[in-house]
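Quick question: what would this complex look like in 3D?
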Amino acid sequence: MEGQEDPQPTGQGSPATRKAVDLARLIKEDCSRLLELYKERETFPENKTSEGGPHLVSVAAISSPDVLTTVERVWHHRCALRRCLELLERQIVWEEEEMGEGGGEYEEVRQAVKVRLGHLLHSTRVLLEAEDVDQGSDHLSPDHDCTQGTEEVDSSNTMNMKIWTHHLLQDLIHWTDSAMKTLHIFHMERTGQQEQQEL
Amino acid sequence: MPVGSFYWKPQRVDSLGPTLHSACSSYASSSGNSDRGTELLVESIMILSNIISGRNRGKSQLLLFNLHPYEPPSMFSTLLCILCLILTVRPSLSQDDSPLGVPQQISLEKDSEAQRLSVTWKCNLVSVFDIEIYRTELMEIVFNETVELSGEKNAGDCHWNWTSAVPLECTSLSVRIRSRDLLRVSDWSPLQTTEGDDLPDNTGAKVYPLDKVVLVGSSTTFCCILGEGQVLEDIRYMRSIMREVRLSRRTYAVTQTLQPPSNTSGTNVFCRATDASMKTTVEGAVIFVGYPPADEELMCETQDLVSAICQWKEGRYTHLKGKLRRTRYTLNGRTCEVVKNVRRCTWEQWEGNWTLLAKNPLGKKEIKDSAPLSHRVHPVAPKNLSILVKNSRNATLQWSWQYLGYKAFPLICQVNVASNGVSVTRNYSGAGLSLVVLEDLWPYETYRVRVRCGAENNFWMWGDWSLESSFQTKMDRPGTPDMWIWMESDNSGQILWKPLSKRESNGDLIGYEVTQGSVSGDGAQRLDVPVSQLSVPLGLQNASEPVVMLLAHNSEWTSHTSQLMVPKYWADVDVTGSEISSRDGGFDMSWPASANASRGYVVEWFNTSCGQYCSVDWRKVPGTNTSARIESSGLQAGIRYTISVYTLSDEAPELLERRHGYLEEMVPAEPVPFLEASQYESSVLLTWQEIPLHSQRGFVRGYNVYLANVAKNTLLAKISDPSVRNCTIRKLGLGTYKFTVRAYTSAGEDGGSTVSIMLEPYTDLLVFEILISLAAMSVFFILVTALCYRKRQWVKKAFYPEIPEPKLPGQWRTSQATVDVKPSPHSMVHIVENPQWDSSKEGLVPVSEEDEDGDESGSEPTDTDSDEPGLLRYYNQVVGDSGQVLRLPIDSSSSSVGSADTDVTYTGIQTSPGPLDTPPQMEAMAAGGYRPQGQVVQQQQQVDRSDADAGAPSSASFGGYKPQCTWRPDSPDGNAIDGSVGSPTSVNSSQFLIPDVSSEDSRNPASSTTWIPSFLSSKP
């Protein structure tokens, strides 16, 4: 899914799904800026191979998307983003303890990502809950943890934490991008269904 | 203290025993005293002898020289030194036979954070060891020195620490030791190794040291342990690629010197390596570079008079943050937490002495403060400010204290009173101060007050300001209005007064009351005026000693009366006001002191050219002053002001002085008006009018008169008297002139008025000249006429000589029928010339037919009877132009008669030379000269007849001189063109053919006009 162009801004359809897509796009842009600022601050050397390395946050079911419905994919993406938010909050706490509270652009963008990610999780939770009502199924509980492979990190080693943070920011970009596209598909499907119902 | 003392293990002096030490010291200190020195020396030798004898074995490693600084070594001293040397070398010599033991049970212990390696081994008497440290893999020696242990022995164990520049995790290190005793050494111990992280079992890549904290400017060595199978790409310190040194098969090291301070997240060191699959991995470490604490200025104070609040400043920034690296504080041994960089600690009870300890991984700093409580009182802000009593000019302010301790504490308080942007601070003091009276307030004014206090005794600092409280004072009597009367004429004027300011009103002003009357109180007229109005017209109705009174009212009070007697009107023209100069945007007016100024002076000023609605301003000056500066925002540049000084007394104000001035002179706003130019003969008089006063914009100092040319203006006259408004420009030639007149002030000239004038010839003179000329000519002609009249006989002779009657033979008539006359208007002229006249009458020449034709071909008109010049031209041209003079024989007339196309004209038969000059023979010739004429007459008659036959008017009636009589000079008929016009006969004969005497009297008046042209055409 990566490398494809972002879906165009949604014009019509369900306001909730459209809002979720727009919010995911905004978070992705914020995460990209956040990674730039972090690499600039930490003078990280170019290492393209590490950027394609294993994710801190992974969802097993996503690896076989063909067998998943769009709703299920949204659900799995929400799981991943929720895990990302947890890790981001841990990272914030760790940085503030070790480096003090800064007031630069990096800290501002990081805070924005944290808040907007919470909004996106709330939006998708509402969507999934509505979908459960519609579909009559409750197997996709929004609070169920579906992630795997998350690694613990030794926070006493500052460099380990920095590299871990670098990976976390890359994962954030990955998952927000993927979630944005999945939500767009979800939005288009809902829009089509509404039009059919109206007809 | 003796200089030159040489110690080698001075601590061993104690082990040698107090006896030798005291002996040597005593000797050294008493070397100035020879007797005592000798005794001590003997004592020292005895002690040394005991040592040599073995009584102090094992405690003899002392070599001591004790030299006096100012004395050369004496013989005794030299001996003492020799003994000591012997003592020193004796033990080694005595042990030659026992080998040194190899250090046993070597153990290594490493402190990675401190990069310190602790070596422990079993040792006995030996204190000197050779120690070697190798990097195990490459067996590169990193340390090789001889060390002497002193006091580190503990129950036979020797202990030695070594700090490595390279982190101990970087690679394995091996240590071996041998004992040394002067010239003898033991065998090396077996290598003892401490393992690094680059062992094959540890396959992962790592970078060391981890999270180390170092001082700014220090050097740090980092090492990168590659993973198995990896190849190093580079090691970077931040963004700088470092030059690495290989420590082992997998370990590389770099050293960064002079490290700059880190940012908050530390300085990163990255190690990049690639494996066999060319995959790049990045490992790294973080180092924190900063400073030790430098906190300063600890200051403790109290606000509640019980507890303490201690504050301090950070000083130099440490660049170290985070829970492990930040600076930690303890105040009097108790931890102080710094939250958000607020360095402040509280203490429940005042202790008097305070010690703050600041500590971080790089060091610590201790700062102290000490003071009694009463010296460090920082009062809290007063609370609950309120106004108890408020009047028009004072108020009572009250507040309360937060703590009970303030009730009896001596305080000094500042009350800040602010109103309309003006802030005043007043000090009050007292024990437990909580109430003050604010005085000198303005009536009906809103004030904002706030209070802060400090300790009256042992003042430390002001406390915090309280919250603001506001109140308004009550109203009071308005101030007396400042009134003035400006007289516009003898009977009218304006009663003026200045508005009362808010401060002067002392309340809401509601209006004024103006009363006009007389001193006696008769005929008073009262008028209420609203606040917005500041003047009323004054009308005098024959009141004696008129007076004006003015009152101001606010909501509650009435002002005192302002009273003024009406001054006398002084017209501006009646008072010659001198000029006054401005300075720095105002006028400095001064005047002589006056005895009548019992109530001072009034300086009044207004725009001189303001007209009816004049804005008059004034200023009252105390009687002690005789000068005032007039400075007002209303003063404008280029405006003439009339400034008057009046004396004030119980009587009417009297004018003392009047002056005029400009705040700033400018060039006139408009040019001189009505500029006119008048010509007087060769002069031009320029006149103009004065520039209106409002347009002068400065004192006109004069006028410049220019002659305006295209290129430039030429200054003709400079008139420095502004009252002169004309100028005469003299001696001008004819032509057009432009004159420009410019008025000038001290600021310069105006734009100028230009007038143009064209100078014409002087007409009267011309007429006069013409009349003179005509008169002269008239006199001349009268004289000539008179002269001619008196000499008329002579004139007659000269111009009209007697012509004898021609005598014609009888047969001459009969032959005339044979004359063949060609009827051509253009007859050839054959001039009968008297050869004797040839020399004097060149003009009388016969004209050939060809010449005649040639003349005809030209443009010369043929009409010859209209003007005499034409006649003259005709003949002169004929003669002169031909250039050929036909010399005909005297009888050529017969041949000419025979010519068919020839007319004979007697032109030029002049008698101008007069009878006086004419020779007698010439007269004879003239007498016979008329025969051709008679032939011509005959021929003419013949022609006339033929003409008559052709219908032409007949002219044959005249005989002899008929042609003379038949000439019609003024009205030649159309037919005459054939016979008369162009015919020499028709014209010239009238002039030169002398008419018949008998018919002379019968000539018409026209003949009188013919003689003048004849006279003019005659040649002498």
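Answer marked as accepted. Residues 45 and 80 of chain B are 7 Å apart (CA to CA).
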